[in-house]
Specification:
binds pyridoxal-5'-phosphate, alpha/beta, about 450 residues, Rossmann fold
Length: about 450
């Protein structure tokens, strides 16, 4: 499955279900889901180029991203513009900080415009699609279902881009107040719909619209949900950067704890490790949604409805990226289970972890990052002395309804996100009805 750099010249993307034609990267990016219902994966995962990465400074996130993606794109249409696209995507820092206990580390992924890790890949996707767009092409509408963070990241990434509109669908009343405000605050070419249903209903609406050939003939549609390759592969940049830097400085590998919902960002870490980057163990931290934990404990995969928790961006009952994990494991569930560990953190533990975090670790976590810290605490209690980095997936100030009462000093949202909160916000109501969604899509706005 690991290709040599020469083989990677013909980089192509295939479906996890094996029944769709192989496509170059940019075509797979535009397609979103494969025609056979599977998810796109690289036909072969190239080895990373140690000599190329050695010349990139320790702090150059955009350069690291471009060096990693180059063999994955091969001779794609985007390759000649790769540096510029990565520069646009990785325009903020992702620092690694030491925590109080020696060997404990914290990687802050939340310094982008919407204060969650999804900004990096959403910006990559937007910059790539804008690069691929020809001047005379009809406007494209990006449809995105969100439980909060995805919608804001995609909205921010496409806001004001000529030739694109974004329609965000979120479950009314099931998203934090700050997230809700941010989703409706873009205006212009980005609109929010508050759906009278669950996140799964929002996803079903998006799928139904994407599957409606007549609608798509009238209104060219794209999707930016986490199954998109453009949302997955760019996330390899930060584990690569920190793993290489850590190995150079300490002579051994850094291990990672990843708060997980649909395994998107954890898979990027596993892909980076499979490409040969010096990444040690990977441990997933999930909330009370049991699908991943049960699968890793040995049960057959069984998707179900999501359970609402305090870590709402991880409320995923049917993590579709398990298909990509199985692909990475050559189709063998036992091998897949050996690639990564998983631990479950319930809401009560999320609260106690947040409440104790400033004194214990010196940081203020969001509810998702708190799941990661709780897993770290459990590893330490069991006597593990290795170096572990917890990824802080969002800023605590984005979830003040949960974190505010638990933290000694309520964290102010970071400036870019605060600016969004200061704007007026508007969302239109939508029933769980694809005809009603079609009407909004056919309207002239943005
Ligand atoms: C999306 C999200 C997650 C889960 O990421 P996956 O890639 O779906 O595993 C975790 N934390 C935050 C803050 C998120 O926005």
């Amino acid at each position: 499955m690991i290709a040599s750099p020469a083989e990677a010249l013909a980089a192509r993307y295939v479906s996890t279900r094996g029944a769709s034609p192989a496509l170059p990267f940019s075509a797979a990016l535009g397609a979103g889901l494969a025609a056979d219902g599977g998810l796109y994966v690289p036909e072969r995962l190239p080895g990373f180029d140690p000599a190329g990465l050695a010349t990139i400074p320790d702090t150059d996130l955009a350069g690291t991203l471009a060096a990693l993606l180059r063999p994955l794109l091969g001779a794609d249409d985007l390759t000649t513009r790769l540096e510029a696209i990565c520069g646009e995507a990785a325009s903020f820092d992702i620092p690694l900080l030491p925590l109080r206990v020696p060997g404990d580390h914290w990687i802050e992924l939340f310094h982008g415009p919407t204060a969650a890790f999804k900004d990096l890949a959403a910006r990559f996707l937007a910059a790539s699609l804008a690069t691929l767009r020809t001047a005379d092409a009809p406007p494209q509408t990006v449809l995105v279902a969100t439980s909060g963070d995805t919608g804001a990241a995609v909205g921010a990434a496409f806001h004001g881009r000529a030739g694109f509109r974004v329609l965000i669908l979120y479950p009314d009343g099931k998203v934090s107040p700050a997230q809700t405000h941010s989703l409706g605050a873009f205006g212009g070419n980005v609109r929010a719909l508050r759906v009278a249903g669950s996140f799964d209903d929002c996803q079903r609406l998006v799928k139904a619209a994407l599957g409606d050939a007549r609608l798509r003939a009238d209104v060219p549609l794209l999707t930016a949900n986490s199954i998109s390759l453009g949302r997955l592969l760019p996330q390899m940049a930060w584990p690569a950067l920190h793993a290489l830097r850590f190995q150079r400085r300490h002579g051994h590998k850094l291990n990672f704890i990843i708060p997980s919902g649909n395994l998107g960002h954890a898979l990027a870490v596993l892909f980076a490790r499979a490409m040969g980057l010096p990444i040690g163990e990977v441990m997933l931290a999930t909330n009370a949604n049991p699908t991943l934990a049960e699968f890793f404990e040995g049960a057959p995969y069984r998707g179900r409805d999501a359970i609402p928790t305090l870590a709402n961006a991880m409320d995923v009952g049917a993590p579709s990226n398990v298909e990509r994990l199985l692909w990475l494991a050559g189709g063998d569930a036992a091998v897949a289970r050996s690639l990564v560990g998983v631990r479950r953190i319930d809401d009560a533990r999320i609260r106690t972890t947040i409440a104790a975090a400033e004194a214990r670790h010196g940081v203020a976590p969001c509810p998702h990052s708190a799941c990661g810290l709780a897993v770290l605490e459990d590893l330490r209690s069991a006597g593990d002395r290795r170096d572990w980095a917890v990824t802080a997936t969002a800023h605590a100030g984005k979830f003040l309804d949960v974190t505010g009462p638990l933290l000694a000093s309520a964290p102010a949202p970071p400036p870019a996100f605060a600016a969004l909160l200061a704007r007026p916000s508007h969302a239109m109501p939508l029933a769980v009805d694809v005809t009603a969604l079609g009407r909004v899509l056919r309207e002239d706005w943005g």
